[in-house]
Design goal:
Layout: E1 3-4, E2 11-18, E3 21-26, E4 32-33, H1 67-79, E5 89-93, H2 99-106, E6 110-115, H3 118-122, E7 130-132, E8 145-151, H4 160-170, E9 171-182, H5 187-192, E10 206-207, H6 210-218, E11 222-229, E12 232-235, H7 236-248, E13 264-267, E14 272-279
Parallel strand pairs: 5-6, 5-8, 6-7, 8-9
Antiparallel strand pairs: 1-2, 2-3, 3-4, 4-10, 9-14, 11-14, 12-13
Helix pairs in contact: 1-2
The protein binds zinc ion.
Residues 5, 7-8, 10, 26, 28-29, 31, 212 line the site of zinc ion.
């Protein structure tokens, strides 16, 4: 079987196996991807159990338990977009419980989220307005946003070009996209092989390298302004959860919570990148 890279079109070959699934890698831009079987519907993954109590399935033990750490990460990342002008509009794609939308509003943005999971949107935080819908078919006019953010979301979206093309359509010329995702070309990813903590199947459909992100953005007129590996805050309990799932598999028993498991500590494995790109005038 021959496959071409869904981002750049170059040839790809299978290079590792995870949970009985072959992961293919582009020989040119380094993108990793796998082929879901017929009938697989990624949007069906994100029900209530995905965000809590899913120790034997995809998703999180307790997404809400990450709230404080996530909010601090989002607030810091939003600062890098600079202070918004009065009335500046920001769209957060895949906001889950809306923490990033809420933080953007606190920072002065006129912000809203577009979320595919009705279970997540129902639990939206504070006054965060969340619209239900698909990131590849956003129900908003052209050039209607000054910024679009995707925090750890792009790896979940089934069609990279459709999603980023849609972001480019939504941004005004000079508007910015900011996103974060794992870096499959990082030393940590390469050393860990199939045990890398971000090879989480089936929810992660793509494993981006820096080069694949650059090419994907550029193909839609989005010029990368900054790209960096950054430390993120994780509660200690979450780090233990990720370690347990990647080392022991998802069927492993969940340990009892212990005092201090909610403590957030900054971790930098240099395997998550944040990127900011600007939409060039047509
Ligand atoms: Zn490629």
């Amino acid at each position: 079987m021959a496959l071409s890279c869904p981002v750049c079109g170059a040839g790809a070959a299978p290079r590792l196996r995870k949970d009985e699934v072959e992961i293919w890698f582009c020989s040119d831009c380094g993108l990793g991807f796998w082929l879901p079987g017929p009938g697989f519907d990624p949007s069906a993954l994100y029900d209530a159990s995905y965000f809590g109590g899913s120790e034997h399935g995809p998703g999180y033990d307790d997404y809400a338990g990450l709230e404080q750490a996530l909010r601090r990460n989002f607030a810091r990342r939003l600062e890098r977009l600079g202070p918004p002008e009065r009335g500046a509009r920001l769209l957060d794609l895949g906001p889950a419980f809306g923490y990033a939308v809420d933080e953007a509003r606190r920072a002065g943005w006129c912000a809203l989220g577009l979320e595919i999971s009705s279970d997540a949107a129902r639990r939206a935080a504070g006054a965060a307005p969340i619209v239900l819908g698909d990131a590849a078919r956003a129900p908003f006019p052209d050039a209607s946003f000054d910024a679009v953010t995707l925090w750890d979301v792009i790896e979940h979206l089934p069609d990279p070009h459709a999603a980023i093309g849609e972001v480019a359509r939504l941004l005004r010329p000079g508007g910015r996209i900011a996103l974060s995702t794992g870096d499959v070309g990082s030393l940590a990813a390469r050393l860990s092989g199939p045990r890398w903590h971000l090879y989480t199947l089936p929810e992660h459909l793509f494993f981006y390298s820096r080069e694949s992100l650059r090419r994907l953005l550029l193909a839609h007129g989005l010029r990368v302004e900054r790209l960096r590996a950054e430390a993120a805050l994780y509660p200690l309990g979450y780090l233990v959860e990720r370690l347990r799932k990647s080392l022991l598999g998802r069927g492993a028993a969940r340990p009892a919570r212990w005092p201090g498991s909610g403590l957030a500590i900054p971790v930098n494995l240099f395997d998550v990148v944040t990127i900011q790109a600007v939409r060039e005038a047509a």
